[in-house]
Design brief:
Layout (H helix, E strand, L loop, with lengths): L15 E5 L4 H12 L3 E6 L6 H7 L5 E5 L16 E4 L6 H6 L1 H22 L2 E7 L26 H21 L3 E6 L2 E2 L10 H10 L4 E4 L5 E3 L1 E2 H12 L7 E3 L4 E3 H11 L6 E4 L14 H6 L8 H16 L1
Parallel strand pairs: 1-2, 1-4, 2-3, 4-5, 5-6, 6-11, 7-10, 8-13
Antiparallel strand pairs: 9-12
The structure holds nicotinamide-adenine-dinucleotide.
The site of nicotinamide-adenine-dinucleotide has 28 residues, from helix 1, strand 2, helix 4 and strand 5.
Length: 326
């Protein structure tokens, strides 16, 4: 690895980027980030958890093309295109989806990832797998560093996601080793921001929507389990840094500021001036007790720093959900 810091491209007029999952939350923001840098962006999605509204937002950019497809069945023909980057981001990621659509999750992270790796191989494109902190399972070390191999229950209710993402990482490394595909892997920690689904079951949209509707905020277990929340704009920049790094091994990305669920709930109640009570529910099986990324590896090779405070990120996200409720 060179010791030079990663530089980001500002004008990407001559680049073509394929983003699988474009109608979703993080991939939608990533598309917009590259559209603003003038790249040609081709979005793929089957709307299993994404929305047409997100595609309408992206369609305002003349350099955006949308192709509706299920990426684990067949990708649309893109033979005639010169593709520079392929982003594999089409996986449902919310715990409520793990119970509802486990087979679809396993297929998109296995067969879907393979189709995208084939696309990258055939076009000599760079490939990035959007993996997850869930590959660490319920971690025994804290904070989590990239060479920790994890503590995952292979048959638990979260395993459809955790294990298929671990497979996706293994497949990505195999394409790199066997075919020389230029692959990158990011392990994304909890991310939040506008365009999440209000009913998507993840903690920040849950708390904000419960507070806005005057309902009690749901705390699972004693609320002392921790998470670290990254605002989506900070995450998308981190993805761009990793795509332009020269290291094929995984990078953790996220914001290392750590909150207990109780603190996060109190913070949101105060920020929204909400009178809502807290409602305690049983802790789901295999719920990780502590989650905080060590992002030192990315910071060694780049000037990357999360810039949006939890307070500011919540303000922007609340604004989005307020508008949705009207
Ligand atoms: N948001 C987070 O906190 C987080 C954390 C860790 C990892 N990730 C990863 O980031 C990526 C995006 O997550 P998100 O939170 O934005 O989820 P999301 O559900 O909002 O986005 C995923 C998109 O992929 C699409 N999709 C799913 N299966 C598909 C298929 N077979 N064919 C075509 N499209 C399909 C969905 O319709 C959706 O638009 C995922 O790979 C996820 O595992 C996200």
């Amino acid at each position: 690895m060179s010791s030079e810091k990663i530089k980001l491209l500002q004008d990407m007029t001559d680049k073509t980027i394929v983003v699988a999952g474009a109608a979703g939350f993080v991939p939608g923001h990533l598309c917009e980030y590259y559209l603003k840098k003038k790249a040609k962006v081709i979005g793929l999605d089957n709307f299993i958890t994404g929305t047409k509204e997100n595609i309408d937002l992206l369609s305002k950019y003349p350099n955006f093309t949308f192709l509706e497809c299920n990426i684990y069945e067949q990708l649309p023909s893109m033979e005639h295109l010169k593709i520079d980057y392929v982003f594999s981001m089409a996986s449902p990621a919310s715990p409520i989806d793990f119970a509802k659509i486990p087979i679809e999750i396993m297929r998109v992270n296995s067969e879907g990832t393979m189709n995208l790796l084939e696309l990258a191989k055939n076009h000599h494109a760079r490939f990035l797998e959007a993996s997850t902190s869930e590959v660490y399972g319920d971690p025994e070390i804290h904070p989590q560093v990239e060479d920790y191999v994890g503590h995952v229950n292979p048959i638990g209710p979260r395993s459809c996601y955790d294990e298929s993402k671990r497979y996706a990482e293994a497949l990505t490394m195999s394409y790199h080793r066997k075919f020389g595909v230029e692959t990158r892997i990011v392990r994304i920690f909890n991310t939040y921001g506008p365009r999440m689904r209000p009913n998507d079951g993840r903690v920040i949209p849950n708390f904000i929507n419960q507070a806005l509707e005057g309902k009690p905020l749901s705390i699972y277990g004693d609320g002392l389990q921790t998470r670290s929340f990254c605002y989506v704009d900070d995450l998308v920049r981190a993805i761009d840094y990793v795509m332009h790094s020269d290291d094929v091994t995984p990078f953790n990305i996220g914001n290392p500021d750590e909150y207990t669920m109780l603190d996060a709930a109190k913070f949101i109640k105060e920020a929204l001036k909400s009178e809502s009570d807290l409602a305690f529910h049983p802790l789901p099986q295999d719920d990780p007790k502590r989650r905080r990324p060590d992002i030192g590896k990315l910071q060694k090779v780049s000037d990357y720093r999360p810039e949006i405070s939890f307070e500011e990120g919540l303000k922007r996200t609340t604004q989005f959900f307020r508008e949705k409720l009207q």
